[in-house]
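testing teh design pipeline on a random one, pls ignore if ur not involved
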C-alpha cells in the first residue's frame, strides 16, 4: 500500500495518546506506531547495562549494539524487541519511564531513532504518537493533533491503566513521575515537547475516553475526508 496520509499525535505523558491512537488505527484501518515504546526500549537497555542515562557519550556507545525491532502480534498490538527478546511488558515499568525520558533528552539517541520512525510512515498510512512527531519526525503529516490533559487527570488515568495490567502503582509517585517527565520533555534542548503551529489542540481533562475518541474521529473525518471502516468505529 502506498501512503496517503499520516496522522501525528503529540502531547505529554498519560494524555491518552496511545489508547486513542490505537483505537483510531483500528477504526480507520491504518497502522499505529507508538514511538515512546522505542525510547523506552533504549532506556531499558541503558538501565540494564547500569550506565548513566544522562551521559550522552556512555549512552551513544551502546547504541550500535542495540537491535531494536517493532513487530505486530496477531491482535495488531505493537510489540518491542530488544536484541530478539520481547521486552513489551518490561518497558512499561515506572522506573523505565524515567530512563526513557532521560535518554530521550540526548540528541544522539534522537538522531539514532529518527530514520526508523520515518521509514514506518513512508510506506503505510500511520497514526504515530510521541512528543516531536508533528514538529520533527513527520513535519509534513497531513494531520497533527496536540493531545493534552491536566497532570492530575493524567496521573489518575495512568494508575488505573497500570492496575489493569496488574502493576501496583502509588498515585503520588505516578504524579511525581509525570511532573518530572513533563518538565524534562518540555524543557530539553533537543526536540522539546511542543505543539506544532498547525496542530489541532485536543484537551481531554474534562472528557472521558469515548468522548475523546469521538472528537478525534470527527477531526480526522473533517480534515482528511476519510471515514472509519474497521472495528472499534
Ligand atoms: O509516550 P511514552 O510515555 O511512552 O514516552 C516515554 C518517553 O520517551 C517520554 O518521557 C518522552 C520520550 N519520547 C520522546 O522524547 N519522543 C517521542 N517521540 C516519544 C517519546
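output:
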Amino acid at each position: 500500500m502506498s501512503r496517503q496520509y499520516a496522522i501525528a499525535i503529540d502531547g505529554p505523558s498519560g494524555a491518552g495518546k496511545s489508547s486513542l491512537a490505537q483505537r483510531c488505527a483500528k477504526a480507520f484501518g491504518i497502522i499505529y506506531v507508538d514511538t515512546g515504546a522505542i525510547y523506552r526500549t533504549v532506556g531499558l537497555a541503558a538501565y540494564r547495562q547500569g550506565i548513566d542515562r544522562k551521559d550522552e557519550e556512555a549512552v551513544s556507545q551502546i547504541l550500535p549494539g542495540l537491535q531494536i525491532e517493532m513487530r505486530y502480534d496477531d491482535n495488531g498490538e505493537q510489540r518491542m524487541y530488544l536484541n530478539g527478546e520481547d521486552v513489551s511488558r518490561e518497558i512499561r515499568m515506572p522506573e523505565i519511564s524515567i530512563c526513557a525520558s532521560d535518554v530521550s533528552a540526548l540528541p544522539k539517541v534522537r538522531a539514532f531513532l529518527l530514520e526508523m520512525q520515518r521509514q514506518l510512515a513512508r510506506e503505510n498510512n500511520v497514526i504515530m504518537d510521541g512528543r516531536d512527531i508533528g514538529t520533527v519526525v513527520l513535519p509534513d503529516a497531513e494531520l497533527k493533533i496536540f493531545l493534552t490533559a491536566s497532570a492530575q487527570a493524567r496521573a489518575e488515568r495512568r494508575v488505573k491503566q497500570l492496575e489493569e495490567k496488574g502493576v501496583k502503582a502509588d498515585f503520588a509517585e505516578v504524579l511525581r513521575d509525570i511532573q518530572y517527565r513533563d518538565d524534562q520533555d518540555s524543557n530539553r534542548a533537543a526536540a522539546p515537547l511542543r505543539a506544532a503551529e498547525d496542530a489541532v489542540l485536543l484537551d481531554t481533562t474534562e472528557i472521558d475516553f469515548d468522548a475523546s475518541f469521538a472528537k478525534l474521529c470527527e477531526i480526522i473525518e473533517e480534515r482528511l475526508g476519510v471515514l472509519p471502516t474497521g472495528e472499534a468505529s
